[in-house]
Amino acid sequence: MAYPSSYYAATANDTPPLVSLSGDETADVCIVGAGYTGLSAALHLAERGYSVVVLEAERVGWGASGRNGGQLGASQRKDQRSLEEALGKEWARRLWDLGLESNALVKDLIARHEIDCDLKPGLLQAGWKRSCATWLRSEVDYLNTHYGYDAVRYVPRAEMHEMLATDRYHGGLLDSNGAHLHPLNYALGLARAAREKGVRIYEESRVLDITHTDPADVKTAVGKVRARHVVLACNAYLGKLEPRVAGYMMPINNFVATTEPLGNEARRLIRDDVCVQDTKFVIDYYRLTADGRLLFGGGESYSPSLPADLAAFVEKPMLRVFPQLEGKRIDYAWSGAVAITLKRMPHFGRLAPNVVFAHGYSGQGINIATLGGKLIAEAIAGQAERFDWMANLKTPKFPGGTWLRYPALVAGMIFYAMKDRLP
Question: Which of 124, 121, 145 is nearest to 136 (CA)?
Answer without folding.
Answer: 124
